């Protein structure tokens, strides 16, 4: 049966601080590159029917260090949620002016609604499944960002896009979506590499 391997990029300065990072194209930290090297060890020998990556350098760099840069295809659908005016701000900073604000529940001014991100995730799922030959067992790797991958997991199991709020996802973590018979399931979630 088909599997989707969700791989979140390694640490950046903004992921470390908790700042919402979408359009801002920042590199991995040294620690983020170390985590990507650990991903390479973890994924050693794993072949994928396709490798899709976000166009952002933090995802592409993680993909390359993990050993899949030469076979990866950019998929615009894997871009992180567009946070609009909240780009670069932490939830704590946003709540100074908007008490109780949540990315999952409140309007994203000049950005994307959670349902729009869900539609993008649905497209990624369709493209990933289409890359696996019919009637075969195969896997597709998706190198991307926390919120888009959380939303993608929610959509995989039939939840609305805001169901992504139920899944925590660390930097450099690996998760696997698959099937139990014909039912879509989460096989593994948030496999990290911290010692």
TrEMBL record:
It comes from the Bacteria. One of its GO terms (molecular function) is phosphoglycerate mutase activity. Its EC number is 5.4.2.12. This is Putative phosphoglycerate mutase. Keywords: Isomerase. Substrate binds at residue 58. CDD domains: HP_PGM_like. GO terms for biological process: regulation of phosphorelay signal transduction system. It comes from Granulicella arctica. Pfam families: His_Phos_1 (PF00300). It is an enzyme of class 5 (isomerase).
């Amino acid at each position: 049966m088909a599997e989707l391997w969700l791989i979140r990029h390694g640490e950046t300065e903004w992921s470390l601080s908790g700042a919402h990072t979408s359009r801002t194209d920042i590199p991995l930290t040294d620690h983020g590159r170390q985590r990507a090297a650990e991903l390479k060890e973890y994924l050693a020998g794993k072949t994928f029917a396709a490798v899709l990556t976000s166009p952002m350098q933090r995802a592409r760099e993680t993909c390359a260090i993990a050993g899949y840069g030469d076979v990866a295809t950019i998929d615009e659908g894997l871009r992180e949620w567009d946070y609009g005016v909240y780009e670069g701000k932490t939830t704590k900073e946003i709540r100074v002016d908007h008490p109780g604000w949540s990315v999952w529940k409140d309007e994203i001014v000049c950005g994307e609604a959670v349902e729009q991100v869900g539609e993008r995730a649905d497209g990624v799922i369709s493209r990933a499944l289409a890359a696996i030959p019919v009637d075969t067992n195969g896997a597709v790797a998706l190198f991307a960002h926390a919120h888009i991958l959380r939303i993608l997991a929610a959509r995989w199991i039939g939840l609305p896009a805001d169901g992504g709020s139920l899944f925590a996802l660390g930097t450099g973590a690996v998760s696997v979506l698959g099937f139990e018979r014909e039912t879509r399931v989460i096989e593994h979630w948030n496999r990290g590499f911290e010692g």
